[in-house]
Give the backbone structure.
Amino acid sequence: MDFALSEEQQDIVSAAREFAQGEFPERALEFDRNETFDLGLWKKACELGFVGVFIDEAYDGAGYGFFEHCLITEEFWAVEPGIGQAILSTTFGSELLGLFGTDAQKQLVLPQLVSGEAILATAITESDAGSDVTGAATTAVKDGEEWVINGSKMFATNGNLAKYMLIFCQTDPDHPSRHARHSFFLVPTDTPGYESTKIRGKLGIRASDTAELALNNVRVPLENLVGTQGEGFQELMAFFNRTRLHIAAQAVGLARSALAEAVRHTQARTQFGAPLASFQVTRFKIAEMATHIRAARNLYYEAAWSVDQGNVDHGIIAMAKWFAAQMAVGCAEEALQMHGGYGYIDEYKVQRLYRDAKILDIYEGTKEMEKTIVSNTILR
Amino acid sequence: MDIVVCIKRVPLIQEVDLEINDAQTGVRDEALAYVINDWDNYAVEEAVILKEQLGGSVTAITVGSEADEEVLRRALAMGADQALRIDPGSRQLDGFVISRILTKAIGTMTYDLILTGVQADDDNGGMVGSMVAEGLGIGHAAVITAINIKDGEAVVHTELEGGMDEVSKVKLPALLSIQTGINEPRYVSIMGIRKARKKELKVTDLESLGLSEDDLTPRTVVEQVFFPPETAGAEMIQGDAGAVAETLLNLLKEKGVSK
């Protein structure tokens, strides 16, 4: 057993950190306050090869694993979660396309994600279908040589920016198993009938775009079915088994940032004649944060490394996602508490981290769903 | 244009409270993080820019341990073609010894230009570049803020006090020590890291360079490292703003700062 990163992985970490530290901090407050982003930063990250490193070399990716993508994600989030999400969410769906797409679909989409010509997004959630994705009621009906999609989607990351959207639709509503009623479709967002509306007022990761989608008679050719008809649910679970690794890495990055803010503040701030960092109550909290971060990181390292080795263990992936997310929320809260009143103001980064953290408990599987998965691996 | 660029890995000391080691010969370095020396980063970028403009090759060199290879891999990822690490083993190094090692190593290579940083952000000696140039018997210029290569000469800019620029011509081959700000160093890219993996990183030791004992004897001996003693001398001026201003003005006049 060897816990060390390879030299190449260490170099990837250093490169990601340098880029993020050089480009993100001066823009973060502006993006957070205005719910905006500068796509120039995304293009720059693409030019430097940070986006979609797990994509096969055959489709212009670097051919690294999800583990290396996690390393980049952790570094970006350790500098600025909102910007990290805005840049690295642009390949969301490529994991599914990579697993189940046809060569033509991959050839069309994946190289553009790497080069920064296109953003791919994935729409799953609906107003009445969240954790219970099998309740998704958006329909796709075959009409001659086309599929016709009707319905609406909620909380689609990059829904206003994406060039292509993977949409989770009901295709077999009468199938006796609710796990065999759905399928994925690749939809260019300039298809007539596709309409997106920006969702404003998010608590955190406000640099990242989120949309509500209205789909009215959106017609795509038959070959835009991704994967196998009726197997959308299984494909979605396989997809989440990759993307949840990234959430765990996001959480570890965010928590590292919270720890750094806590250390900086408690060393600088003096109360009762001594720095806050000299009091045992502070020192123990710092020790706990550092330990939790290390534990979460080791958990996601194992989960991600296993997937890259071809061993997809959904139990450990769910453990990593849940534990890391909850750990990050906890670290952000402790770090804010150590800041006292200053932590309540948005000029202090810790306030943003506190708000950014909460989504980790929710998206790509709530912590309750992750615990359901974990318990199902133990109690059969 | 074949360019050799000499680089060094140095501790990151911003926002770090340095502690003096038990032997009082330096600072405690166990817990320090290391990065490429900032000046050297500009030197690597300048070398790569010149190669991109004029063709040729860039060779990055460092004198250091295996851990120091990190900065060589970084240079390769930025566009250097090959790298050389000279392992000093347990030898004590100072500016003199490093310059003798580099002189020997570079002396066997073909080169038109050698670039170094102005100084390294550890001891800030700033002497290796000029000593290497002397050792090789070539011209050198220091604190360079712009380079133009023309007809076997380098037209170089040096920043002088008061914002003046001095422009000189140096015949090639020459050694130039590079000032920060001469360019905007590129970020290391994933493509660069992947290409670097296929480039040659050679390692050699001191024995194979054929250095004499005299070459390897440091000329600098550190007697003691200590924090400057805290001194008295601050005077707190009390009173309301008007009284404080008047006292301050009188003091400034008295000390000859104001008339």
Q: What stands out?
A: The domain at 2-209 of chain B is CATH 3.40.50.620 (Rossmann fold). Chain B touches chain A at residues 69-70, 73-74, 77, 187-194, 196-197 (CB under 8 Å). The helical segments of chain B are 38-54, 69-78, 95-107, 128-136, 190-196, 206-209, 241-254. The CA atoms of residues 35 and 132 of chain B lie 23 Å apart.
